[in-house]
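can u pls check wat happens w/ 4'-deoxy-4'-aminopyridoxal-5'-phosphate
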Amino acid sequence: MNNSWEENVRRVVPYVPGEQPKETDIIKLNTNENPYPPSPAVQKILDGFDISRMRLYPTPDAEILVNAIAERYALKPSQVFVGVGSDDVISMAFLTFFNSGKPIFFPDITYSFYDVWADVYRIPYETKPLRPDFTIDPEDYKKPNGGIIFPNPNAPTGVLESVGMIEEIVRANPDSVVMIDEAYIDFGGESCLPLIEKYDNLLVIQTFSKSRSMAGMRIGYAMGSEKLIKYMNDVKFSINSYTMNTVTQLCGAAAVKDEEYFRSTVDKIVEMREITKNVLSDMGFTFPDSKSNFIFAKPPHKSAEYVFNELKKRGIYVRWWNKPIIKDYLRITIGTPNEMDKLIAALCWEGIINE
Ligand code: PMP
């Protein structure tokens, strides 16, 4: 049969998220989730939630959540855009701002969703090689382009760039929108957020999925000039007004207000990351310095693929990509001290990495 409608399908190769195994007795260090639960203030909201509120549509401008985020970062609510995880926010930003027909730029080793969004929206792109130490060369981003995006710290390397270097790139690109994806910034990086007051073309994107332990709730947000945020909302309201449900808005607002809990869990993860760096280094792993909640490490003696599979057999999930340059590395999310002990025991005492 001649299925001519198929000629007009928007064909895409979808993004492949990290595995979410069904078993619960595993050690899950493969998708950069936070090993600690969200703030107890979130539990309180859920316990007290009156389900009759579900009859009503949520506030379409997600006022409760937007106001809480604006207050936390000392911004006007009109400088904050929220979405269903930062994936939704970044996708909306691509659709809104990357329309010049010129290629957008991002690093060759980076979050592997960027090229998927570019493809689905038919946005041309060019990738720029990282230096051998996995840092970004700002000169690569000073050529004509239709927009720029990269994560800081970068994923999956964990490498942090300075605010000064980001400003250099933003300053060189007054004619395009520059997006900095700060999914992991809370784990020890300096945010470039203050620059949004100076540059109306800079969009800073963050998420509740990592430092606020709420990957399952799906909350992401973008902060930028009122102009940028208005343009994003215009597109969002042209597709789906009610992206943020009532329960999520309430839980998100409660989480962002609990600064003390946020600090305490982030501090625990950072401490564990530094301990893990020392142990991995003693074992012969090599890795770029990480300022995120994961370490991108190359095992000694054995291939990353071998170590990945051996760990998996023992119920320990880390992430490995069969891609040039990065196929020698494992991305290991920082878990609880107990989880990291088990990882180290498997690698070392069970002999996975031994010669
Ligand atoms: N940006 C980067 C760099 C990420 O690693 C992730 C997590 N996969 C995201 C954005 C999206 O996170 P979320 O949609 O959960 O906010």
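The longest strand covers residues 202-207.
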